[in-house]
Write a structure and sequence with these properties.
This protein is mainly α. It has 13 helices and no strands. The chain has two domains: 131 residues; 183 residues, no CATH class. The two termini are 39 Å apart.
């Protein structure tokens, strides 16, 4: 339960946004909540930018644990995110974006999704650019538990269901249809099997080239990944991780977000959700996989994407010891 607690506020705003589709009072509450969150993040960003100067002024040293942490870049990322979030609340801006995306500029749900997607994307960029060394050091000593993985993906599913208005604007059948969670056919399973094989080949080729061109960087990321996912090396552990990630990420990204934000932006957000790989060839690989899954979603359904994601993650974890 505690792992889900930090996400209760955005979940509440998503629920409010769904109610706001037909009720003026909820619309005002939704937009006021989004405005206050953006304003708070803007102030927080300014404080992060000022923290080193405040430390020098008060002669209170910063914690050694923050060594390598770029306050300027992270603070700037928070400020930029907040400013973009505030612009997203302006109807003319959303109307302009609607010419490129499939958003309804008058929809409180789409406005909320746009703001939350901005926070995921820009904050992830800020972490990657501004806290790279600090993040990598933290990952080297981190170890994910099955509960942490499952609870995190449960949050993704809750976001997707809430975003589609399950129980508010849509019943179960309508919500499943909106998310693309349809039946599997033999043709879809055949396509899924081919996609899994191609993804595994891509993963191995990427690892091979990466290891030969940037061996130190490759070894550092691989060691961090093995430490982070060390508890999932067994077949049961690999299956747990694969099921959680496959169901959670595909429900949110391919199911809920892609029909609104289209393939490129959704794939980029999907990639930025994997900050544990830092800025590396693995990031490019994840982007390619995200684009491929996006294309697959348009040709089959989200269920097929889940099967591909689950099978790929499961097999990839099992064959990881065979990698360079």
């Amino acid at each position: 339960m505690w792992a889900i607690t930090p996400y209760l506020l955005p979940l509440a705003i998503i629920v409010s946004a769904n109610l706001a589709e037909s009720r003026r009072a909820w619309r005002l509450l939704t937009f006021a909540s989004l405005f206050l969150i953006n304003a708070a993040v803007f102030v927080l960003g300014l404080l992060i930018l000022a923290l080193p100067a405040l430390s020098r002024l008060t002669q209170v040293p910063l914690s050694p644990a923050l060594a390598g942490f770029s306050f300027a870049k992270l603070g700037a990322a928070a400020v930029v995110t907040a400013v973009l979030g505030l612009f997203a609340l302006l109807n003319p801006v959303r109307r302009w974006l609607a010419s490129y995306l499939h958003i309804d500029p008058d929809s409180p749900v789409h406005t909320t999704a746009l703001v939350l997607l901005l926070y995921l994307s820009v904050s992830s960029i800020g972490v990657l650019v501004g806290a790279g060394p600090w993040l990598m050091e933290g990952l080297e000593s981190a170890n994910l538990s099955p509960w942490a993985v499952v609870s995190g993906q449960v949050v993704f599913v809750l976001f997707a269901l809430a975003g589609t208005g399950f129980g508010l604007r849509r019943n179960a059948r309508q919500a499943l249809r909106r998310l693309g969670l349809g039946p599997l056919t033999l043709r879809y399973l055949g396509i899924a099997a081919l996609a899994v094989l191609l993804f595994l080949v891509l993963d191995y080729v990427t690892a091979l080239l990466w290891q030969r061109i940037w061996p130190l960087d490759y070894r550092s990321i691989m060691d961090s990944s093995q430490q982070l996912f060390g508890g999932f090396g067994s077949p049961l552990g690999a299956l747990t991780l694969a099921l959680a990630a496959g169901i959670g990420e595909e429900t949110l990204f391919r199911g809920a977000l892609q029909p609104v934000f289209r393939i490129p932006l959704t794939a980029l957000a999907f990639t930025l959700g994997h900050v544990q790989y830092g800025l590396s060839p693995a990031t490019v690989e994840i982007l390619l996989i995200g684009l491929a899954l996006g294309w697959l979603r348009t040709r089959t359904n989200t269920t097929t994407c889940m099967v591909v994601h689950i099978a790929y993650n499961f097999l990839d974890l099992l064959i990881m010891p065979l990698f360079p």
